[in-house]
Structure prediction request, 172 residues.
Amino acid sequence: MTHLNAYLGKIAWFLFIILVSIVYGFLIQINPIPPLNILLWGSFCYLIYTVFLVNFTNEKRSRKIFIYIAMTVCIYLIYVVKSVYFVSYFNGIYLTGSNDLIPLEFEESIFRTIVNPSIFLQKLEFLLAWDTLSISFGGNNTIAFGSVLTNIFRMIEILGILFTSLIFNAFI
Prediction:
């Protein structure tokens, strides 16, 4: 019975991290304020650290592999939500003229994208090509970073999530 409780506890933590990854991807995509996004990213990395990586160096090799697979699944889900949201929002604005906070067909499209990797790759390619980071200072004063620099920021986000244990162990 104790083994069953231990497995159920691990499954519950994994499902919690999956849910948090989906919420994080959604919040990052809808939020236009870069400093708040950095704060959300840091909070997500700290959550990953506290859930998976506190005693990472003392873990068995099989557990380390499971942790990295779980973190890879988290990153996959984050970019599924980001790409689905961007494509749905883009379609909503340019095809129907609506700019709702939650675009039409967002919920249905998430499941199709999670299950079918080719759809995910198409939506991810569209996200990476068209969604660029820009900072507006009001009026016509805007700094646009372009897709190359924006994608470098995305790589930093992914590497930060993957190397969370190194980052927090160095500073804590």
Notes: Strands lie at 134-136, 142-144.
